[in-house]
Task: inverse folding
């Protein structure tokens, strides 16, 4: 197996930290991001960092990774990059969807709901199917997705994303169940509340979320992107070959300590 990883959402937050960590672990980085405006500046810095750490062994594509046209266009390119060897990791770290309530002055629409569930949930399945058919997944490959405690808690404005996370968890469980026989595993990482750009898009009260999290978390701090990156790195080791169809908690015990 080649030492290449594929990150869907690798320019900011958890994805950026994971790209840096895995590059330092010796992996080549293939990453997708869809950044405009201010976010593009952050992405540019991440790419420069990863290029330096990986000694140029990285490819970043600024396009909509949730588009099936993009999947069909770029998977042959990915195969060329790895010289046909399977990738070690497919990480779904796309944080783009509608954050609003189901009812009230701006209730979620069907179009918004469908988009959120597709981008943050279903797109992982379609990537996995295509990579598998292209023989870019094999014994030892990992499928990982990022989830949150919003998968079982009701929160202000989080409804559409919550549905997407639950869908993604079900997809991951089924992928692991079907492909486990081939040594391909699939798991979700549940991070705690993390002060990232994505959090500021979820709620205007993100600062109070952070303050409350520090109080209720047993370790008295919030999760960091590096915490998640370290967990991903650990799960790529051969010692993790038998972890499958699971949710791995990377939150310092936060999910066991009450609500926001």
Result:
């Amino acid at each position: 197996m080649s030492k290449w990883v594929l990150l869907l959402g690798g320019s900011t937050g958890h994805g950026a930290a994971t790209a840096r960590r895995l590059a330092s672990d010796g992996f080549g980085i293939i990453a997708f991001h869809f950044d405009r405006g201010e976010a593009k500046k952050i992405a540019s810095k991440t790419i420069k960092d990863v290029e330096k750490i990986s000694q140029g062994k990285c490819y970043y594509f600024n396009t909509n990774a949730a588009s099936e046209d993009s999947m069909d266009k770029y998977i042959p390119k990915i195969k060329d990059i790895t010289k046909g060897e399977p990738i070690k990791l497919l990480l779904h770290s796309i944080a783009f969807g509608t954050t609003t309530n189901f009812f009230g002055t701006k209730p979620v629409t069907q179009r918004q709901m469908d988009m959120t569930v597709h981008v943050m949930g279903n797109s992982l399945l379609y990537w996995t199917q295509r990579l598998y058919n292209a023989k870019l997944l094999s014994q030892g490959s990992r499928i990982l997705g990022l989830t949150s405690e919003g998968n079982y808690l009701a929160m202000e404005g989080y409804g559409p994303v919550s549905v997407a996370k639950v869908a993604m968890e079900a997809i991951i469980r089924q992928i692991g169940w079907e492909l486990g026989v081939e040594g391909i595993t699939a798991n979700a990482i549940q991070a705690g509340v993390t002060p990232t750009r994505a959090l500021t898009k979820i709620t205007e009260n993100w600062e109070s979320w952070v303050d409350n999290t520090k109080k209720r978390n047993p370790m008295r701090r919030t999760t960091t992107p590096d915490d998640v990156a370290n967990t991903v790195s650990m799960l790529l080791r051969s010692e993790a070959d038998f972890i499958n169809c699971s949710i791995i908690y990377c939150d310092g015990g936060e999910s066991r300590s009450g609500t926001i």
Residues 4-250 form a domain with the Rossmann fold fold (CATH 3.40.50.720).
